[in-house]
Design goal:
six-stranded antiparallel sheet; two-stranded antiparallel ribbon; Type Iii Antifreeze Protein Isoform Hplc 12; alpha+beta; flat; 31% strand; 2 helices; single chain
Length: 230
């Protein structure tokens, strides 16, 4: 085989392999898009906003996220929020959904939708990281008969309606030696509200874990870990 024919053969092989690789990458990208859904626009807070701040182009931005992770009630354009204000303090990056929007027509009463309730509790958590408009997980630690305890992820992705730091001796399900405490109001279902009210009596400790902005993953509620960490 001549040198020219060998070079032509290698060039053809390289082109074939490149085409196959590009096809494989395109196939993987298409499968990923089908799994996550096409990107959709979601309006978010551009900066940290105080309650009552105007929701306009100065304070808002639009990001595109896979449909799978976009809140079902999220606003898709800044124009749709014309004339509205923040109903609660918002952190930068918070998704703008009806629950955090005051359009001037809010009725008197609790800031929840029909079928929802406001659960009030005092739990261990960071007052610096837990704030109105954020979202948290709630852990409940129970005492077992042998003196050991088990911890259960009782509530996922609960919206915080209000939060404040609690000083020493401020109450709660556990003593002050377990770390800082925070008093907070959560948007929950009636069943969840009843459970949290009972938990403050029977639980050894309640703890709230702040979630990352935009994190809407679910499926771990009910997970329990015993004293043996299993």
């Amino acid at each position: 085989m001549t040198r020219r024919r060998r070079a032509a053969l290698l060039l053809g092989l390289a082109l074939l392999l490149g085409t196959l690789a590009a096809s494989d990458v395109a196939g993987r990208e298409a499968a990923l898009r089908r799994s996550l859904g096409e990107p959709v626009p979601v309006v978010v807070a551009r900066t940290r906003l105080a309650a009552g701040a105007r929701l306009d182009a100065r304070h808002l931005a639009v990001r595109r996220v896979p449909a799978r992770y976009a809140p079902a009630t999220a606003y898709g354009s800044v124009a749709a929020l014309a004339g509205t204000r923040a109903a609660a303090p918002l952190e930068a990056g918070t998704d703008i959904v009806p629950a955090v929007v005051d359009d001037g027509t809010r009725a008197a009463g609790a800031p929840v939708r029909p079928g929802e309730r406001v659960a009030e509790l005092v739990a261990h958590g960071s007052p610096e990281l837990i704030h109105a408009g954020g979202r948290v997980n709630v852990l409940v630690t129970r005492e077992q008969g042998d003196g050991a305890g088990s911890t259960t992820l009782a509530l996922e992705d609960a919206e915080v309606l209000a939060a404040r730091a609690v000083g020493e001796g401020g109450g709660g399900a556990a003593g002050a030696d377990a770390g800082p405490q925070v008093a907070l109001s959560l948007r929950v279902t009636l069943r969840q509200a009843v459970f949290l009210a009972a938990a403050q009596s029977f639980a050894r400790e309640l703890r709230v874990l702040p979630r990352a902005g935009g994190d809407r993953r679910h499926g771990q509620a009910g997970t329990t870990v015993g004293a043996d960490l299993r």
